[in-house]
From TrEMBL:
Pfam families: Peptidase_M23. It is an enzyme of class 3 (hydrolase). Its EC number is 3.4.-.-. Gene3D superfamilies: Glucose Permease (Domain IIA). This is M23 family metallopeptidase. Keywords: Hydrolase, Membrane, Transmembrane, Transmembrane helix. CDD domains: M23_peptidase. InterPro entries: Cell_wall_metabolism_enzyme, Dup_hybrid_motif, M23ase_b-sheet_dom.
Length: 279
C-alpha cells in the first residue's frame, strides 16, 4: 500500500468513526431519517478499511522483516512487561501507528505499596498516585535528537475495573480514535536515534517533559515522567521503535534492550538505578 493510499484510508477511517459516534449520540435525542440498518454501513466500512490496512502492512513486514535494533532500557528499577512482542506480533493486535513491536511496562517495586490489582466492581477508578509507575523517570534509549515532545494532555483516572474498562472501550476509545494519533498515545516524545530508527514514549505525565523538539540528548538522560495520558488504562510506559517520526505512516521496528532483551508478558525485569545527568 503506497504512502498516499495509507494517508487517504487513515483519514477516511477517522471520518467514518466520527460519523458513527455522532449518529449514536443523535439517536438519543431525535429519530434518525433512515432505517436502523443503514447505520451499520459505516461501521462495516471502518472494519473493512482497518482489515485492509493491517493486511497490507502485515504483508510488507512479513516480506521484509527488519532486524532488531539494540537500545538502552527506557527506565530504571523493577518493572513488568505487558503486551510484549516476545509473545505475539503485532504485540497490540495491530500494525497501526507503528505498534507492531511495541511493549507496555508497569512498575512493580519490591518495596512500598504494590501495584493495584484489577477490580471487578469496586473501586471503579483509582488515582494515579496509587500506581508506582506514575512519575517514574523515562530515559533516552540512546544518543538522539528530539523530534517531537508534548505534555499538555491531562492524566486521567485509572480504567482498571470492569465498569471503567467498558467505558474505556465503548466510549472513550471511539473519541480518541476520532481525535487522531496524538489523542491515542497522549503526551509523548519521539526520538531520532539515527540510522532511520525512531523511538516513541507514550502516555507521558502532564507537564513533566524536560526536553523539547530539536534538543540533543544522550543515552540515559531523563526525558520526563511516566504518566496516564491518552489511551491508557493505568500509569505505564508504552515504548516502541519505528522507521519514521510520523505515527500514521511509520512501520514498527523490533527492539532489544541492552542487558534485558525483550521481556515477555508478565515477566519481571530490573534495570540499574544509575541515571546519566542532563548535560
Amino acid at each position: 500500500m503506497s504512502i498516499g493510499m495509507r494517508k487517504f484510508t487513515g483519514v477516511l477511517q477517522r471520518l467514518l468513526v466520527l460519523y458513527v459516534f455522532v449518529q449514536v449520540v443523535a439517536a438519543f435525542f431525535v429519530e434518525l431519517p433512515y432505517p436502523y440498518w443503514v447505520g451499520w454501513i459505516p461501521i462495516l466500512a471502518v472494519l473493512a478499511i482497518g482489515f485492509a490496512r493491517r493486511r497490507a502492512v502485515g504483508r510488507e513486514i512479513v516480506a521484509e522483516p527488519p532486524a532488531p535494533v539494540e537500545v538502552d532500557p527506557p527506565v530504571t528499577g523493577r518493572w513488568s512487561a505487558l503486551n510484549s512482542p516476545a509473545d505475539k506480533v503485532p504485540s497490540h493486535g495491530t500494525h497501526g501507528l507503528g505498534q507492531t513491536y511495541a511493549i507496555d511496562i508497569v512498575a512493580v517495586p519490591e518495596e512500598g505499596p504494590p501495584r493495584p490489582a484489577f477490580a471487578w466492581l469496586w473501586p471503579v477508578t483509582r488515582r494515579n498516585r496509587a500506581f508506582p509507575a506514575f512519575g517514574a523517570p523515562l530515559l533516552a534509549a540512546g544518543d538522539a535528537t528530539v523530534v517531537h515532545a508534548e505534555d499538555g494532555q491531562r492524566d486521567h483516572l485509572s480504567r482498571n475495573s470492569l465498569a471503567a474498562l467498558l467505558y474505556f472501550f465503548v466510549i472513550e476509545g471511539i473519541g480518541r480514535t476520532v481525535g487522531g494519533a496524538r489523542r491515542v498515545v497522549g503526551n509523548h516524545v519521539v526520538l531520532d536515534l539515527g540510522g532511520g530508527t525512531y523511538a516513541l514514549y507514550a502516555h507521558v505525565k502532564q507537564g513533566s517533559l524536560a526536553v523539547k523538539a530539536g534538543d540533543q540528548v544522550v543515552a540515559g538522560q531523563r526525558l520526563g515522567s511516566c504518566g496516564n495520558s491518552g489511551n491508557s488504562t493505568e500509569p505505564h510506559l508504552h515504548f516502541q521503535l519505528m522507521d519514521g517520526p510520523d505515527l500514521n505512516m511509520a512501520r514498527g521496528v523490533p527492539f532489544s534492550w541492552r542487558g534485558v532483551g525483550v521481556p515477555g508478558g508478565g515477566e519481571t525485569f530490573a534495570v540499574g538505578e544509575d541515571v546519566t545527568p542532563v548535560p
